[in-house]
Amino acid sequence: MLEESLVLDGQTPLSLSFAPGDFLQVNAQVNQQIVARVIEWLAPQPEQKILDLFAGIGNFSLPIAAAGAKVHAVEGNPAMVARIAINAKHNELMVSGQQADLSDPGSVKQLLDEHADSDALVLDPPRSGGEAICQALARHPVAKVVYISCDPATLARDAAHLVHAGYRVKQVAVADMFLHTAHMETLVLFEADVD
């Protein structure tokens, strides 16, 4: 087992353990900036319920929980779901988690039905994007969606689904994760009226 420290301004450093083969961002400094921006946009409060989809080892889940929100982390890889639980326990945080196929519309519908009272959603999909989730959010809206993307084409496709469903783009940021290359991480904050 290996370990990485995640340090955000004003917070106690978080320790994330990981194993070879687990996904994590390669540029720790830029990752910390991305996590800080996600926290800023979400402004997590105690009693808020936030879904973290494609949660990995808890890169966003743990800092959001440390800020006080109730986090439910969902990941397709069962080993990483177990790692989220280990990381949450090690950092003395409460994060619930589950394994689910987030590319399957039926699984996504069931997940969003079960967590219909969520206040916000963090979406950090692989290059293939989060199309099933963005389509389902038309029928299961949440007030805020923070989408972190490594692929402009799938982000454009998924953003179109969200905008068509009534979400508005409120903030956009880019992060140069791979210095001296054309590859960027894009962060988008979408908001919807959920009255």
From TrEMBL:
<dbReference type="Pfam" id="PF05958">
    <property type="entry name" value="tRNA_U5-meth_tr"/>
</dbReference>
<dbReference type="GO" id="GO:0070475">
    <property type="term" value="P:rRNA base methylation"/>
</dbReference>
<dbReference type="InterPro" id="IPR029063">
    <property type="entry name" value="SAM-dependent_MTases_sf"/>
</dbReference>
<feature type="binding site">
    <location>
        <position position="124"/>
    </location>
    <ligand>
        <name>S-adenosyl-L-methionine</name>
    </ligand>
</feature>
<keyword id="KW-0808">Transferase</keyword>
<feature type="binding site">
    <location>
        <position position="25"/>
    </location>
    <ligand>
        <name>S-adenosyl-L-methionine</name>
    </ligand>
</feature>
<dbReference type="GO" id="GO:0070041">
    <property type="term" value="F:rRNA (uridine-C5-)-methyltransferase activity"/>
</dbReference>
<dbReference type="InterPro" id="IPR010280">
    <property type="entry name" value="U5_MeTrfase_fam"/>
</dbReference>
<feature type="active site">
    <location>
        <position position="150"/>
    </location>
</feature>
<feature type="domain" description="TRM5/TYW2-like methyltransferase">
    <location>
        <begin position="46"/>
        <end position="93"/>
    </location>
</feature>
<dbReference type="InterPro" id="IPR030390">
    <property type="entry name" value="MeTrfase_TrmA_AS"/>
</dbReference>
<comment type="similarity">
    <text>Belongs to the class I-like SAM-binding methyltransferase superfamily. RNA M5U methyltransferase family.</text>
</comment>
<keyword id="KW-0489">Methyltransferase</keyword>
<dbReference type="InterPro" id="IPR056743">
    <property type="entry name" value="TRM5-TYW2-like_MTfase"/>
</dbReference>
<protein>
    <recommendedName>
        <fullName>TRM5/TYW2-like methyltransferase domain-containing protein</fullName>
    </recommendedName>
</protein>
<feature type="active site" description="Nucleophile">
    <location>
        <position position="150"/>
    </location>
</feature>
<keyword id="KW-0949">S-adenosyl-L-methionine</keyword>
<dbReference type="Pfam" id="PF02475">
    <property type="entry name" value="TRM5-TYW2_MTfase"/>
</dbReference>
<feature type="binding site">
    <location>
        <position position="54"/>
    </location>
    <ligand>
        <name>S-adenosyl-L-methionine</name>
    </ligand>
</feature>
<feature type="binding site">
    <location>
        <position position="75"/>
    </location>
    <ligand>
        <name>S-adenosyl-L-methionine</name>
    </ligand>
</feature>
